[in-house]
Write a structure and sequence with these properties.
alpha/beta; TIM Barrel; six-stranded parallel sheet; elongated
Length: 299
């Protein structure tokens, strides 16, 4: 690779982001892997053929539609990885909702390096801001009730930490990050165990120290689950009316989460049923990338 990839955490802002927002995320490794995928073994041959090695660009990165920002410091890390001396001015912060035309950051640095980093930086920022933007729309649709929005494990393989970070920037809370940080008994577990109550008892007997959540899709499973010691219920694919009845039966004994059939048209009614949480796979699984551009001028 002709472009020398520096340590991506050389930028103090990116390092602070990595430490505070994503303590388990290896920012440097991610940036190196993504740049290697884009640059290949020969690097940006077009820029080397057409642009002088010492040419400099000033650039503005701006959104072309209203967005909620997520991943700005990761975008900066791509530019910093190819040009340690690039000057960066961040104009906004992650989790900010901004209007179309807002300048997100300004860059001043080596032209070849900037062009080589551009696609990786934009792809990442557009994707993560897309998740944050869609999540913010769901938050707005929920309204002012008590229900909190949760994400799910429906994420692009290898990008879960980033996508769940973006969901947080949009206002959601994270559900399980991995399968080892929460016991969630679903219909297949119930079928093999021989029923909701039996599955919950087995999970409690395992003494993992983790709370036990169990999926129920019928009203008549609720008391069985609670009697067996369930710490939380996942009310799956229930109508708003059925959810209301389920919440009444639970009567605050454990938190209730609604899941299944949730979209922007249905979430307000689901949230109004009295559930504590609404989980939505769409915010990570189906969020479209937002439109963000980078405009250059020779220095």
């Amino acid at each position: 690779m002709q472009e020398d990839i520096a340590d991506a955490d050389a930028d103090a802002g990116a390092l602070a982001f990595e430490t505070a927002a994503l303590p388990q995320f290896d920012l440097g490794e991610f940036v190196r892997r993504v740049l290697a995928e884009d640059l290949g073994s020969g690097g940006d041959v077009t820029s080397r053929a057409t642009i002088a090695a010492d040419a400099r660009f000033v650039a503005e990165m701006a959104c072309r539609e209203p967005i909620t920002v997520a991943g700005l410091d990761i975008a900066v890390a791509f530019f910093r990885a190819l040009d340690r001396e690039v000057r960066v001015t961040r104009e906004v912060k992650d989790a900010e909702s901004v209007a179309a035309g807002t300048v997100l950051l300004r860059l001043d640095g080596n032209a070849r390096a900037m062009l080589a980093a551009e696609r990786s930086a934009l792809n990442t920022l557009q994707h993560l801001s897309g998740i944050a933007t869609l999540t913010a729309r769901y938050i707005a649709a929920i309204g002012d009730g008590k229900a909190k929005l949760l994400d799910t494990r429906k994420t692009v393989p290898g990008l879960r930490l980033l996508e769940k970070y973006a969901a947080r920037m949009g206002g959601a809370e994270n559900h399980r990050m991995r399968m080892d940080d929460g016991l969630l008994i679903k219909d297949n577990h119930v079928a093999v165990a021989g029923g909701v109550g039996a599955a919950v008892k087995l999970a409690k007997a395992a003494t993992t120290g983790l709370p036990v959540q169990v999926e129920v899709d019928r009203i008549d499973q609720i008391e069985e689950a609670l009697a067996a010691g369930a710490d939380r219920l996942l009310l799956d694919n229930m109508t708003a009316d059925t959810l209301r009845a389920a919440v009444g039966i639970v009567a605050g004994r454990v938190p209730c989460e609604a899941s299944g059939g949730v979209n922007l048209d249905t979430i307000a009614g689901i949230a109004a049923s009295g559930v504590d949480y609404v989980s939505v796979g769409r915010i990570t699984q189906s969020a479209p990338a937002v439109d963000i551009g980078l405009d250059y001028a020779l220095q």
